[in-house]
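How a chain folds remains the central question behind the approach discussed here. The record that follows shows the chain in one-letter code together with its fold in C-alpha coordinate form:
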Amino acid sequence: MNQPDNVATVTSRIIEERIGHIVFSNPARRHALSADLLEALEQRLAELAEQRLPVLLLGSGIGQEVWSAGHDLGELAHDRDPIAYGKPLERVLRAIRSYPGVVIAMVSGSVWGGAVDLVMSCDLVVADRSARFSMTPANIGLPYTTSGLLRFFHNLPIHVLKEMFFCALPLTAERAVQFGVVNRLAESGGLEAEALEMARGIAAKAPLAVRAVKEQLRIMEDMQPLPVQAMEQITELRRQACASADFSEGLAAFSGRRQPQFRGV
Protein backbone atom coordinates (compact mmCIF):
# COMPACT_ATOMS: atom_id res chain seq x y z
CA MET A 1 0.00 0.00 0.00
CA ASN A 2 1.44 3.38 -1.03
CA GLN A 3 1.87 6.11 1.56
CA PRO A 4 0.08 9.44 0.93
CA ASP A 5 2.36 12.20 -0.38
CA ASN A 6 1.79 14.34 2.72
CA VAL A 7 3.21 11.71 5.11
CA ALA A 8 6.88 11.70 6.17
CA THR A 9 8.28 8.18 6.20
CA VAL A 10 11.57 6.39 6.87
CA THR A 11 11.99 2.86 5.58
CA SER A 12 14.87 0.43 5.92
CA ARG A 13 15.72 -2.88 4.30
CA ILE A 14 18.64 -5.23 3.88
CA ILE A 15 19.48 -5.24 0.17
CA GLU A 16 22.38 -7.69 0.43
CA GLU A 17 23.74 -9.82 3.24
CA ARG A 18 25.98 -7.11 4.68
CA ILE A 19 24.43 -3.95 3.19
CA GLY A 20 21.43 -2.03 4.49
CA HIS A 21 19.49 0.80 2.88
CA ILE A 22 17.58 3.61 4.62
CA VAL A 23 15.28 5.88 2.61
CA PHE A 24 13.62 8.95 4.13
CA SER A 25 10.75 10.68 2.37
CA ASN A 26 8.72 13.82 2.99
CA PRO A 27 7.56 14.78 -0.52
CA ALA A 28 5.02 17.40 0.53
CA ARG A 29 7.83 19.34 2.26
CA ARG A 30 10.63 18.67 -0.26
CA HIS A 31 11.93 15.90 2.03
CA ALA A 32 12.41 18.37 4.89
CA LEU A 33 13.88 17.00 8.12
CA SER A 34 10.86 17.35 10.37
CA ALA A 35 11.08 16.27 13.99
CA ASP A 36 8.92 13.21 13.28
CA LEU A 37 11.07 12.17 10.32
CA LEU A 38 14.28 12.61 12.32
CA GLU A 39 12.95 10.57 15.23
CA ALA A 40 11.99 7.77 12.82
CA LEU A 41 15.42 7.97 11.19
CA GLU A 42 17.11 7.73 14.60
CA GLN A 43 15.03 4.62 15.35
CA ARG A 44 15.93 2.94 12.04
CA LEU A 45 19.62 3.62 12.62
CA ALA A 46 19.40 2.09 16.08
CA GLU A 47 17.65 -1.01 14.72
CA LEU A 48 20.25 -1.56 12.01
CA ALA A 49 23.08 -0.87 14.45
CA GLU A 50 21.84 -3.81 16.53
CA GLN A 51 22.16 -6.02 13.44
CA ARG A 52 25.76 -4.84 12.94
CA LEU A 53 25.43 -4.40 9.19
CA PRO A 54 28.89 -3.29 7.98
CA VAL A 55 27.52 -0.82 5.40
CA LEU A 56 24.45 1.41 5.16
CA LEU A 57 23.25 3.44 2.19
CA LEU A 58 21.28 6.57 3.10
CA GLY A 59 19.17 8.68 0.77
CA SER A 60 15.80 10.21 -0.04
CA GLY A 61 15.46 8.89 -3.57
CA ILE A 62 17.02 9.27 -7.00
CA GLY A 63 16.21 11.54 -9.93
CA GLN A 64 14.50 14.29 -7.94
CA GLU A 65 15.13 18.03 -7.79
CA VAL A 66 15.58 18.21 -4.01
CA TRP A 67 17.37 15.59 -1.88
CA SER A 68 16.27 17.44 1.25
CA ALA A 69 15.25 21.02 2.01
CA GLY A 70 16.85 20.76 5.45
CA HIS A 71 14.95 21.70 8.60
CA ASP A 72 11.20 22.01 8.34
CA LEU A 73 11.06 25.78 8.87
CA GLY A 74 7.40 25.56 9.82
CA GLU A 75 8.52 24.00 13.09
CA LEU A 76 10.80 26.94 13.97
CA ALA A 77 7.84 28.95 15.22
CA HIS A 78 7.86 26.58 18.19
CA ASP A 79 11.60 25.86 18.38
CA ARG A 80 13.96 28.74 17.67
CA ASP A 81 17.12 26.64 18.02
CA PRO A 82 16.51 23.31 16.24
CA ILE A 83 20.21 22.44 16.01
CA ALA A 84 21.03 22.55 19.73
CA TYR A 85 22.71 19.53 21.33
CA GLY A 86 19.68 17.48 22.39
CA LYS A 87 17.47 18.23 19.39
CA PRO A 88 16.44 15.53 16.86
CA LEU A 89 18.88 16.53 14.11
CA GLU A 90 21.90 16.51 16.40
CA ARG A 91 20.86 13.13 17.79
CA VAL A 92 20.64 11.69 14.26
CA LEU A 93 24.03 13.13 13.32
CA ARG A 94 25.60 11.50 16.38
CA ALA A 95 23.86 8.21 15.55
CA ILE A 96 25.35 8.26 12.05
CA ARG A 97 28.82 9.13 13.29
CA SER A 98 28.71 6.41 15.96
CA TYR A 99 27.06 3.76 13.77
CA PRO A 100 29.22 0.58 13.97
CA GLY A 101 29.86 0.46 10.26
CA VAL A 102 30.21 2.70 7.22
CA VAL A 103 27.33 5.01 6.27
CA ILE A 104 27.29 6.13 2.62
CA ALA A 105 25.12 9.09 1.60
CA MET A 106 23.56 8.73 -1.86
CA VAL A 107 22.76 12.24 -3.08
CA SER A 108 20.67 13.24 -6.07
CA GLY A 109 19.31 16.79 -6.28
CA SER A 110 19.85 19.86 -4.12
CA VAL A 111 20.67 19.67 -0.41
CA TRP A 112 19.89 22.55 1.94
CA GLY A 113 20.82 23.65 5.45
CA GLY A 114 20.78 20.92 8.08
CA ALA A 115 20.57 18.26 5.36
CA VAL A 116 24.07 19.27 4.23
CA ASP A 117 25.24 18.55 7.78
CA LEU A 118 23.50 15.18 7.51
CA VAL A 119 25.50 14.39 4.37
CA MET A 120 28.75 15.63 5.95
CA SER A 121 28.19 13.38 8.96
CA CYS A 122 28.13 10.28 6.76
CA ASP A 123 31.43 8.46 6.25
CA LEU A 124 31.37 8.60 2.45
CA VAL A 125 29.34 10.46 -0.16
CA VAL A 126 28.31 9.32 -3.63
CA ALA A 127 26.45 11.93 -5.69
CA ASP A 128 25.25 12.49 -9.22
CA ARG A 129 25.80 15.69 -11.18
CA SER A 130 22.48 17.18 -10.08
CA ALA A 131 23.73 17.45 -6.48
CA ARG A 132 24.06 20.94 -4.98
CA PHE A 133 24.97 21.75 -1.38
CA SER A 134 23.70 25.03 0.13
CA MET A 135 24.10 26.25 3.70
CA THR A 136 21.27 28.77 4.13
CA PRO A 137 20.95 29.62 7.87
CA ALA A 138 22.08 33.22 7.19
CA ASN A 139 19.03 33.66 4.95
CA ILE A 140 16.74 33.43 7.99
CA GLY A 141 19.08 34.60 10.76
CA LEU A 142 19.82 31.22 12.34
CA PRO A 143 23.34 30.88 13.84
CA TYR A 144 24.98 27.51 13.29
CA THR A 145 26.38 25.39 16.10
CA THR A 146 30.06 25.00 16.93
CA SER A 147 29.85 21.22 16.51
CA GLY A 148 28.25 21.65 13.09
CA LEU A 149 30.85 24.18 11.99
CA LEU A 150 33.61 21.82 13.10
CA ARG A 151 32.24 19.14 10.77
CA PHE A 152 32.55 21.58 7.89
CA PHE A 153 35.93 22.79 9.16
CA HIS A 154 37.29 19.24 8.91
CA ASN A 155 35.97 18.80 5.37
CA LEU A 156 36.43 22.12 3.59
CA PRO A 157 39.09 24.79 3.11
CA ILE A 158 38.31 27.69 5.44
CA HIS A 159 37.53 30.18 2.67
CA VAL A 160 35.15 27.76 0.96
CA LEU A 161 33.44 27.15 4.32
CA LYS A 162 33.02 30.90 4.81
CA GLU A 163 31.69 31.31 1.27
CA MET A 164 29.05 28.64 1.90
CA PHE A 165 27.87 30.17 5.18
CA PHE A 166 28.24 33.88 4.35
CA CYS A 167 26.84 33.79 0.80
CA ALA A 168 24.43 30.83 1.10
CA LEU A 169 25.25 29.92 -2.49
CA PRO A 170 25.33 26.30 -3.64
CA LEU A 171 28.46 24.20 -3.88
CA THR A 172 28.13 22.28 -7.13
CA ALA A 173 28.74 18.56 -7.36
CA GLU A 174 31.94 19.20 -9.34
CA ARG A 175 33.33 21.60 -6.72
CA ALA A 176 32.25 19.22 -3.95
CA VAL A 177 34.38 16.51 -5.59
CA GLN A 178 37.26 18.96 -5.94
CA PHE A 179 37.23 19.69 -2.19
CA GLY A 180 36.72 16.05 -1.17
CA VAL A 181 33.16 16.45 0.12
CA VAL A 182 31.96 13.94 -2.50
CA ASN A 183 33.96 10.72 -2.90
CA ARG A 184 32.47 9.55 -6.17
CA LEU A 185 30.50 11.40 -8.83
CA ALA A 186 28.04 9.32 -10.82
CA GLU A 187 26.53 10.08 -14.18
CA SER A 188 22.76 10.50 -14.49
CA GLY A 189 21.06 7.19 -13.78
CA GLY A 190 24.17 5.59 -12.34
CA LEU A 191 24.02 6.76 -8.73
CA GLU A 192 22.70 3.56 -7.14
CA ALA A 193 25.09 1.34 -9.10
CA GLU A 194 28.05 3.53 -8.12
CA ALA A 195 27.05 3.51 -4.44
CA LEU A 196 26.46 -0.25 -4.46
CA GLU A 197 29.86 -0.88 -6.00
CA MET A 198 31.50 1.09 -3.19
CA ALA A 199 29.33 -0.61 -0.55
CA ARG A 200 30.16 -4.10 -1.81
CA GLY A 201 33.86 -3.33 -1.72
CA ILE A 202 33.61 -2.21 1.91
CA ALA A 203 31.33 -5.11 2.88
CA ALA A 204 33.99 -7.55 1.69
CA LYS A 205 36.57 -6.12 4.10
CA ALA A 206 37.11 -7.12 7.74
CA PRO A 207 34.23 -5.37 9.57
CA LEU A 208 35.97 -5.14 12.96
CA ALA A 209 38.98 -3.43 11.40
CA VAL A 210 36.80 -0.94 9.50
CA ARG A 211 34.73 -0.27 12.61
CA ALA A 212 37.84 0.34 14.70
CA VAL A 213 39.25 2.83 12.19
CA LYS A 214 35.91 4.69 11.99
CA GLU A 215 35.72 5.00 15.77
CA GLN A 216 39.34 6.13 16.05
CA LEU A 217 38.76 8.82 13.45
CA ARG A 218 35.55 9.94 15.17
CA ILE A 219 37.35 10.29 18.51
CA MET A 220 40.28 12.17 16.98
CA GLU A 221 37.91 14.46 15.08
CA ASP A 222 36.02 15.22 18.30
CA MET A 223 39.19 16.12 20.18
CA GLN A 224 38.77 19.87 19.79
CA PRO A 225 39.22 21.35 23.26
CA LEU A 226 38.04 24.95 23.58
CA PRO A 227 38.65 27.25 26.56
CA VAL A 228 35.62 27.72 28.80
CA GLN A 229 35.60 31.45 28.04
CA ALA A 230 35.47 30.78 24.29
CA MET A 231 32.53 28.38 24.70
CA GLU A 232 30.70 30.93 26.83
CA GLN A 233 31.26 33.63 24.19
CA ILE A 234 29.99 31.33 21.43
CA THR A 235 26.95 30.35 23.48
CA GLU A 236 26.06 33.98 24.14
CA LEU A 237 26.44 34.94 20.47
CA ARG A 238 24.14 32.08 19.45
CA ARG A 239 21.62 32.99 22.18
CA GLN A 240 21.46 36.59 20.97
CA ALA A 241 20.97 35.56 17.34
CA CYS A 242 18.26 32.99 18.17
CA ALA A 243 16.38 35.56 20.28
CA SER A 244 16.79 38.39 17.77
CA ALA A 245 14.18 40.31 15.82
CA ASP A 246 16.17 39.42 12.71
CA PHE A 247 15.44 35.73 13.21
CA SER A 248 11.71 36.49 13.53
CA GLU A 249 11.94 38.62 10.38
CA GLY A 250 13.77 35.87 8.52
CA LEU A 251 11.09 33.31 9.35
CA ALA A 252 8.29 35.74 8.43
CA ALA A 253 9.99 36.60 5.13
CA PHE A 254 10.45 32.93 4.27
CA SER A 255 6.81 32.19 5.08
CA GLY A 256 5.67 35.20 3.04
CA ARG A 257 8.01 34.41 0.13
CA ARG A 258 9.67 37.83 0.27
CA GLN A 259 13.14 39.23 0.87
CA PRO A 260 13.92 39.73 4.58
CA GLN A 261 14.79 43.17 5.90
CA PHE A 262 17.49 42.48 8.47
CA ARG A 263 18.46 45.27 10.91
CA GLY A 264 21.11 43.53 13.04
CA VAL A 265 18.94 43.47 16.16
Notes: The beta strands are 9-16, 19-25, 55-59, 66-68, 102-107, 110-112, 124-128, 132-134, 171-172, 184-186. The chain has one domain: 9-216. The mean pLDDT is 89. Residues 9-216 form a domain with the 2-enoyl-CoA Hydratase; Chain A, domain 1 fold (CATH 3.90.226.10).
